[in-house]
Amino acid sequence: MSDKKEFLKYTIPQLLRHRAELSPDKVALREKDFGIWRSLTYSQYYDLVKKTALGLEEIGVGEGDIVVLITDNIPEMLFISIGTHAVGGMSAGIYQTSLPHEIADILNYMEATVVFCDDQEQVDKLIEVRDKIPAVRKVIFEDPRGMRSYFSDPWFMDITQLYEMGEKKLAEGGAKHLDELIDKGKPSDGCHLCLTSGTTGIPKGAIMTHTNYINMGIALTEVDPLKESDEYVSFLPFAWIGEQMNSFGVALATGITINFPESVETMMSDLKEIGPHFIFGAPRIYETIRSNIWLKIDESYAFNRACYKYFIAKGEEAARYKMAGKKMPLSLAVISKLGQWLLLNPLINQLGLLRLRRAYTGGAALGPELFTFYQAIGVNLKQIYGQTEITGIAYVHRDGDVKPDTVGLPLPGTECKISEEGEIMSKSPSVCAGYYKLPEATEALVTDGWLHSGDAGYMDENGHLIVIDRLSDVMHNNKDEMFSPMFLENKLKFSPYIKEAVIFGDKQDYVAALINIDPVIVGKWAEDRGISFTTFMDLSQKPEVAKLIREEVLKINANVEKDYFRIHRFGILYKLLDVDDGELTKTGKIRREFVKNRYMELYDALYDESVSVKRVSAIFQYQDGQTTTVDTDMEFYTLDIS
Hints:
Elements lengths: L1 H4 L6 H11 L4 E7 L2 E6 H17 L7 E5 L5 H11 L3 E4 L6 H11 L3 E4 L2 H9 L9 E4 L14 E3 H13 L2 H11 L5 E6 L9 E5 H14 L7 E3 L7 H14 L2 E4 L6 H8 L3 E4 L1 H16 L3 H23 L5 H22 L6 E4 L6 H10 L3 E5 L9 E2 L12 E2 L4 E4 L4 E5 L11 H7 E2 L2 E10 L5 E6 L4 E2 L5 E2 L1 H9 L4 E7 L6 E7 L1 H10 L7 H5 L2 H16 L8 E6 L19 H7 L1 H7 L6 E9 L5 E12 L4
Parallel strand pairs: 1-11, 3-4, 3-5, 4-8, 5-6, 6-7, 10-11, 12-13, 13-14, 25-26
Antiparallel strand pairs: 1-2, 8-9, 14-15, 15-16, 17-18, 18-20, 19-20, 20-21, 22-23, 24-25, 26-28, 27-28
Helix pairs in contact: 2-3, 2-10, 3-4, 3-7, 9-10, 13-14, 13-15, 21-22
């Protein structure tokens, strides 16, 4: 580990150069394209970064310039990013789901000069707002399919042209010049602008330094060591800190291999071929995998379902011992081992997770039940906690000390304190340098080196951090009794039939909820019972579905001690909450106030017990910005919480 501490004196390009010198033939990147896996060694990786860097310099990218990426997860995203760092610029990522006007706003805020896109879909968004982004001098694309007509326009450039420019510069002796540029960089320099989640408004660009990423990679692997032979899967959006911290920080600090699936659609099948040793994903990914497992079990024979139910119960019992680092009774150890061998190992092998030593989740809270479930099936899932501004991770569970209701202990080198207002504050070398062009927001972000998280929480007697909710989201009923909506939402989402939930109740007489059913699981449930339906809207308003969800809510209420914390009224929303409609952030977090305002008539109906049915006009927005309106009846249900 002392050797890794030495990496803190490097920038990201300097560390990649070091890796290429140290292990030139070690596989660094592997990509599946047209069904074939292609590998790049660290030497080849660095060679492509050099060509990219000199090509970028040739088109005018230099110190202080910002290059924005709107791309799938492909090796080129690293070549462009690290190439930009090498010549003194900063990279930045924008979510591919962003609409043209959102992209224009972000590009103008960052004053980006070059944009890299992977395909025509993203390029066409830029064409739509071309007259609104005057600072953008060049658009580089990776996949030329469908873009033949663009080649005559000097605004566009194929990435192969960029490589050719860089290769020509290298042939002319540019290697020495590039080394001088790379050596000029300092670990404290800003290298990437990472957009915040935008839960409360327009995303801000956090200025991430080389030290931020490399320190986080070192600290995490001090807790959970990785071998150079280990495999990682890159499938998280590059615009999210969760992907950057692994592809920049962890990968270069450890020398592991990054695998790029062929596409988002093939990710689960590609996962089986990769057999990763660690993965990192947002809660929604683990919720989806869990739902798919339950769907497969539900479709199985009655004997298989009975075996699964028995062994998963024993597995969860054993998992509680394992997570606490306690020795379990011999009989339980034997039964759980038998269940793992007979049933659960084949199950997780089908998912490609058999070699997995650790899985992490972050970005939003995950319910304790889901942790226990994954530990029971043999997936060592652990919660991490942090935020963009502290490079994604500041707290993590340790093996043998996994408490599902906490987010673990601080990473090495991270300090934690709780303010008088109950806010979680952290200090670490991974705290960002502030917000780009937002001095007032930066001043509010950090006080004497302590990062304000905006989250409420406390430390338990063992030093574990417990996150209650966003300070702004913690609610008090009309009797000033405090509760966390996120806690209830996570409880609800553990049900296989509930995909999303939004809890209300601030300054009200009782707690109420808008619930999204899971269209796949509930659709299968309805088909098995001969319940016909046409659309999601039709399915969501079926009385049989309402009865099913009612039973799920009653189960949650039965496990909540305080009456005021139980759900008294709920409605099943006629559409899925969606990123494109602004109801969720790009990382899947609920924009609670936005949802409340958007569905104010439904919110009002939840708090008017005389209303059992309400006629509403449902507005749907498509990705191209067009909208359509459909009228429907939405029912509301009242539960006894006494």
